[in-house]
């Protein structure tokens, strides 16, 4: 059986958590493949709202394996909090498996993240400060500590060796810190992480594929935050794209089935970096307000703008998307006109792709579509939706040359329509 992949096509926060939860009943295994607690994946059902950071979004379904893959980086402190918060809801966590090859975020990784951002001043990435960049740097620098190391006899020795390297770098940054308390908390939290099954997850998945199990790979962040193909350097430190599912889980491209690309009916970005269709006026503010656009991890307000077609086409190509899912259509209710960026002007010349340089100089050119007034959050089927929404969907499908299979009109599981 093939592995389907679900990932974000914009700058993250497209609604991945909600849709993974909706689709989980079709799968045996949900496997997160990259990123760490920089992610905030929100789910809503039965009037309760949950935000997950490290744990895959299939965790609320019984009888489904949730797996944290080798491509993920784990902060034991945040992991412990997540476990405590879902355990309060009587959610079974015995079906949560963790790759021995997943890297650990140390307290000093977080300090390094903060020191690096401070040193960058106005040029800062706008990192979530969860230690993501420094942890992946240690992974590629071949210095990192992995989940499988926790049970080794010389774990503390390895920890101290890496910590001491970090302290030297912090010295270079001239960054003040107090490690005692956070280190104590980290070791205390490690005991929770230790209780879970640490496995050779690539072998586990190979067997599952052989035994026809249905697997969904859950991405974090979005394509435009990808380390290679995002708006570098204003990106995260992992491959958020479909290729990341192969490296982040140890599965071959031959085993990838459908790739579900999720996007909002408009666009948001949190943190620094170019955003060609960003709105700096009351329309942008209105979208942010109606869409409740605040980061699920940091609470920072998200920057808002109209949908960006060239950026979406780029993301579709890089990922080999087979099906699209459009989120937050309800947020666009009440606008007389909806705009969509169809191309850009760069130094007066028309371009329809994201160039290597000068992304912050791109002037968006828009097509205007008719808006609608009706509140979509109460509708029970898409046939009740205004014709203007149907027109918007059809127009997007034509532009993007792919079917939009899901339209979401609210944060709840139930506010999801299949086409
Ligand atoms: P993720 O990181 O891709 O999982 O997305 P986030 O959870 O960070 O952000 C998506 C936000 O939009 C969350 O607050 C969701 O509850 C909410 N959401 C998801 N789908 C919809 C939708 O169709 N309409 C509205 N109004 N909110 C939605
Ligand atoms: P989910 O999975 C939105 C952004 C940060 C910053 C940049 C680098 O919820 O969609 P990092 O902490 O990775 O060093 O930050 O990436 N960022 C996200 N933006 N959603 C996310 O995850 C993000 N994870 C990181 O705001 O601009
Ligand atoms: Mg999020």
Describe the structure.
With 419 residues, the chain is of the alpha/beta class. The protein contains eleven helices and 20 strands. The strands form five sheets. It has a ten-stranded mixed beta sheet, sandwiched between helices. Strands 14, 16, 17 and 18 form a four-stranded mixed beta sheet that branches. Helix 2 (76-87) packs across helix 6 (180-194), helix 3 packs across helix 4 and helix 3 runs parallel beside helix 5 (155-173). The longest helix has 19 residues, at 155-173. The chain is globular, with a radius of gyration of 21 Å. The relative contact order is 0.16. The model has no long low-confidence stretch (mean pLDDT 97). 6-O-phosphoryl inosine monophosphate is lined by residues 8, 11-13, 35, 38-41, 125-128, 130, 132-133, 220-222, 225, 236, 270-271, 296. Residues 12-13, 39-41, 296 line the site of magnesium ion (MG).
Rg measurement, Å: 21 Å
Strand content: 15-25%
Percent helix, as a range, is 25-40%
What is the distance, rounded to the nearest whole angstrom, between the alpha carbons of the first and last residues? 24 Å
**Average pLDDT rating:** 97
Are there runs of 5+ residues with pLDDT below 50, and where? none
Shape: globular
Molecules bound to protein: guanosine-5'-diphosphate, 6-O-phosphoryl inosine monophosphate, magnesium ion
Describe the largest sheet: 10 strands, mixed
- Say how many strands there are: 20
What is the SS-derived class? alpha/beta
The total count of helices amounts to 11
Strand order in the sheet with the most strands: 9-7-5-2-10-1-11-15-19-20
């Amino acid at each position: 059986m093939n592995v389907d992949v679900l990932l974000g096509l914009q700058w993250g926060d497209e609604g991945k958590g909600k849709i993974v939860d909706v689709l989980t009943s079709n799968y045996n295994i949900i496997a997160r493949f990259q990123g760490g607690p920089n992610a905030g994946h929100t789910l809503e059902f039965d009037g309760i709202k949950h935000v997950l950071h490290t744990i895959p979004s299939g965790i609320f379904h019984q009888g489904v394996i949730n797996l944290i893959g080798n491509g993920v980086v784990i902060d034991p402190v945040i992991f412990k909090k997540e476990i405590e918060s879902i355990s309060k809801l009587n959610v079974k966590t015995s079906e949560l498996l963790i790759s021995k090859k997943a890297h650990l975020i140390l307290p000093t990784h977080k300090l390094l993240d903060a020191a690096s951002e401070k040193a960058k001043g106005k040029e800062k990435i706008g990192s979530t400060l969860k230690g993501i960049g420094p942890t992946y740097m240690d992974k590629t620098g071949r210095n990192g500590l992995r989940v499988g190391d926790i049970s080794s006899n010389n774990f503390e020795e390895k920890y101290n060796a890496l910590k001491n390297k970090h302290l030297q770098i912090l010295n270079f940054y001239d960054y003040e810190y107090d490690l005692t308390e956070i280190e104590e908390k980290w070791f205390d939290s490690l005991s929770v992480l230790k209780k879970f099954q640490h496995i050779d997850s690539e072998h586990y998945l190979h067997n599952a594929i052989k035994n026809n199990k249905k697997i969904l790979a859950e991405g974090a962040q979005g394509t435009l935050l990808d380390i290679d193909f995002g708006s570098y350097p204003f990106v995260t430190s992992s491959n958020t794209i479909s290729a990341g599912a192969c490296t982040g889980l140890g599965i071959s491209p031959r085993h990838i089935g459908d790739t579900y690309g999720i996007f909002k009916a408009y666009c948001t970005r949190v943190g620094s970096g170019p955003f060609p269709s960003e709105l700096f006026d009351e329309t942008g503010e209105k979208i942010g307000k109606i869409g409740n656009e605040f980061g699920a991890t940091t609470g920072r307000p998200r920057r808002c703008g109209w949908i960006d077609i060239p950026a979406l086409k780029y993301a579709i190509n890089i990922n080999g998307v087979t099906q699209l899912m459009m989120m937050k259509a309800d947020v666009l209710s009440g606008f007389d006109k909806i705009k969509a960026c169809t191309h850009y002007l760069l130094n007066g010349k028309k371009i329809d792709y994201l160039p290597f340089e000068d992304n912050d100089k791109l002037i968006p050119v828009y097509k205007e579509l008719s808006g609608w007034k009706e509140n979509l959050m109460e509708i029970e089927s898409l046939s009740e939706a205004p014709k203007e929404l149907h027109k918007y969907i059809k127009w997007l499908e034509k532009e993007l040359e792919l079917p939009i299979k899901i339209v979401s009109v609210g944060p709840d599981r139930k506010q999801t329509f299949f086409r």
